[in-house]
Structure formats: C-alpha cells, structure tokens
Amino acid sequence: MVMRHGSGPLRATDESKTEPVGSLSADVEKMSLSHSDNKPRLGCYFCNDVVAPVDSTTNRTLDQQCTVTRPGLAPIASALAVELFVGILHHPLGISAEAEFGNSLDSGSSEQPLGILPHQIRGALSQFSQMILVGHSSNSCTACCPTVVAEYRKRGLDFVLQAINHPTYLEDLTGLTELMKSANTFELDWDDATDNDNDFVEI
C-alpha cells in the first residue's frame, strides 16, 4: 500500500496563515475532520485502524512481521510514492487536494499535467494488480484526530513519552478503548426456529 496523508485537523485556510496563534484553545477550535469547504479531509495510515501503533517485529516469527514482503515490492512502492509526492507538488491545492480516481480524467474533473492524484494505491503482486481507494479521516484516529493533535501541541515531548511507555494511552485518549468494549459486549438475538421450506423460493 502506498498513500498520501491528508492535510491534518487544522483547516486548510488556517494552516496557510503565518500569524502566531494566541492560545491552545484557539487552535482546538480550528481543528476539524473536514476542510473549510466542508468536504471530508483525507485520512492518514491509522485512520482506518482500531488500535494504537505497536511494535510489529519484536517477539514475532518471521511470517508474523508486517515488514516482511516480496523482494520486488520495495522499489515498486518507492516509485509510486515518488509519483504521489511529485503530483502533490504540482497540484494547485497541494496537500489539500481531493482524492482522484481513474475515471477523473475521462469526466474532465482533472486537468493536471501528471494525471490523477489518488489517495491510496493498494496492490497485490500475487495477482499483479492495483486498486485506487480513498479513506477519510476518523475522529478516533490515534495519530491525527483533533484530540491527539491538541494534546501533542499542549504537552509536547511528555505526550510522546507517555504514548511510548503506555501502549493503551492513545486508545484511551481517543475513545478506542470504549469502542472496543462496546463491540465486545454487543449481543445479537438469533432466531433458531426452523423455517418451513415453503418459505424459500429457488432462483
């Protein structure tokens, strides 16, 4: 997977301003899951994840380490990442550019000289295939949600150290802990009654 991150929880119009911000509360008020035009901003790598970042290599067998991959995949991913980066540099909206798909050029919505600017490129070498996907920001993201960014801007290195030394801290801060608890306690009522075969229709 190769992806570009969104512009962050600060609104694009506020990020471009150079004047200093008076207080942390003013910064928090500017944070949002959408751009100034109310369109959802692009998410980061952790926006679609439901756990905090963890060590994915220590005490794991070779086949369980997420960094183990096909030998030719590194240069392929690197090349796609370079193309995404150059596309961002040449796009008028820069990092705030919306995600574009393969049919964007056909519809005339994109006239960039380098073509479309996707959000995520996911591929499978086993099938030599690629897909273009988009994922929007999450208000429970352990990396870029307004809560995490505000806490980092407030506490700085102390916040980073606490996140490193306490693996569940980010999950507690963003509400993922409560979300997972509620998912575990969710119960479904199953109807085990046998239906009459006459209720089914063959197609």
Explain this structure to me?
Strands 1-2-3 form a 3-stranded antiparallel β-sheet. The radius of gyration is 22 Å and the shape is globular. It has 203 residues and is mainly alpha-helical. The protein is 33% helix and 6% strand. It has 8 helices and 3 strands, in the order E-H-H-H-H-E-E-H-H-H-H. About 9% of the residues have low confidence.
Low-confidence runs: 12-29
Question: What is the straight-line distance between the termini?
Answer: 40 Å
Taking all Cα atoms into account, the compactness measure Rg is 22 Å
User: Taking all residues together, what is the mean pLDDT?
Assistant: 77
Give the fraction of residues assigned to helices.
25-40%
Biggest β-sheet: strands ordered side by side in the sheet? 1-2-3
Per the principal axes of the C-alpha atoms, what is the gross shape?
A: globular
